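Input record (one chain):
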Amino acid sequence: MSMTHGETVMQKPIGDYARYMKMLLPVDIPATYPLKAGLEDVASAADIRKGVVAFRDFLHIFCERLITDGHTVAVTKKTRNPNDYPFLHYVNHLLIDIGYQGKLAVDGGSLLLTQIPSFTDPKNKTPVYRQADVLRFLSFCGLNFSGIDLDADVVTLSQEWPLSVSYPERPVLALGLKALAIAEMELRTERRYSNDDYLLRCDWWLIREGETDTLAVLEDYLHPLPAKIRQFILSLHKRHTDMGMATAISKRDGLHIAYAKTKTGGRVLTQRELYDKRLWEFALSMKHGHCLVVRAKKADKYADMIADFPPLLRDKIKQGYGCDRKRGERCQGGCQGIRIALDEGILGIRREIEMWLDNELA
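The corresponding structure, as predicted from the sequence alone:
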């Protein structure tokens, strides 16, 4: 799913985007879980898990600094992709370089680098004039770069190698960053784009052995919402997985937890294939927040059933979904499905939502 198909709009300040980024960070990372093969050479599983939590906590600090001071390093612009903040891409690429290219010090508390591809590779290059901004801001967040004079007018990266990067507040972060960077480079099966900022989400599921637990991801997704809304969404999840619906998770352009109907006895579908077959999903995006998005296709078959629905919901269902611009409206992502905000208003139409989804599934 791409967010670049809309009209040109003015981005929100990066501080607003940082608030959204915080909602994408995992809330509940278990104390124990098995690691994928290939990570055992980094450190003990227990230390890696501690390092991942430390990195998650560092990202909270990073987001808080963006909220208060992000305007000093990132200006808003007109764009067709409101999620495109180049400064965040530069940070993401640098952190991957530090983790993937860096060699752990003997004590495991720092990473030593002799190259930073994102600063030198033309295909994935951070402009020279932005390199100092990236390093200084990460230093402002607590990372320590030994071997570079960050106060100099021009930051010179070649004056003393290897470059040592550490997080004095919690040195174990180096182990978590190393494992997560390896996972981003070698274990992620989704197609990677140059503007993907997955590392800034601390996607710990990528290093965990076994299938992703959809319920756990859903509970993380719901954590900012009021308790009654969380309970309702969790009941919908149980209702439809008990009916045999398969789930798929996509983290492209936000977070999407999708539900699809599959035929029994066939081959096992990939997450991408399941997502493409989705009937509805719970989505989180910068533009729309938390939403239920339904790809309703059978409204004509249950017209009598929705006749007594509240007018706003009934009219949405009757209108269906499709390209907004073909309807003479500005693009709001209508081609993705009928969008229902997960706010207090949904509690008044809980029964109607259940009936609607049941009939789409039938």
